[in-house]
Amino acid sequence: MDYVKAFLVGGLICALVQILLDRTKLMPGRVMVLLVCSGAVLGFLNIYQPIVSFAKAGASVPLLGFGNLLWKGVKEAVRKDGLIGIFTGGFTASAAGISAALVFGYLGSLVFEPKMKK
């Protein structure tokens, strides 16, 4: 049943983003920023954690989950280090995920032949 919940919530998030892309003139980069900021705001309002508890990876993997992760890192760092945590918390919380994305992206470029768009 966990797979079904993850599929439904993740699919709903993706469907809503696709509707946003199709119905507005927003560029994909701006939509991505909107998703990350929305995840942070939903985390701040304590709305996102119940969704993650219900859907697990279906809610934590999309960009909303990244924004929520940044918020959690900032909140923890501010609690631990004070005001300087506003600047360091997001980096600390997301360092492993960003590093993995860079390493696997580089490894993928070694395995496959990357080409520039024409």
From TrEMBL:
Coiled coil: none annotated. Keywords: Membrane, Transmembrane, Transmembrane helix. Signal peptide: none annotated. The chain crosses the membrane at residues 6-24, 31-48, 83-107. It comes from the Bacteria. InterPro entries: Spore_V_AE, SpoVA. Pfam families: SpoVAC_SpoVAEB. This is Stage V sporulation protein AE. It comes from Faecalimonas umbilicata.
